[in-house]
Amino acid sequence: MLNYIRTTTTKTGLQVQSVRVNRQYQAGVKISNRQMAELNITKGKKLPDWNYDIRPRQSHMLPGSRAARPAAT
User: What is the pTM of this model?
Assistant: First the structure.
């Protein structure tokens, strides 16, 4: 599977990196409706239950957060 991801190409030059994480995750973990509502999810037009983007929340949306600092260069 990783080879399919690593060899992904597009006409516009998309570059893909992937790594396998060998970790066991607990199955059946549920989150509350409130936690779900706090996610910054944008669903795709086609098959929205399968195609979606999850983006970082704005700092003002995070409970108890401070203003975001610029990234170090």
Answer: 0.43
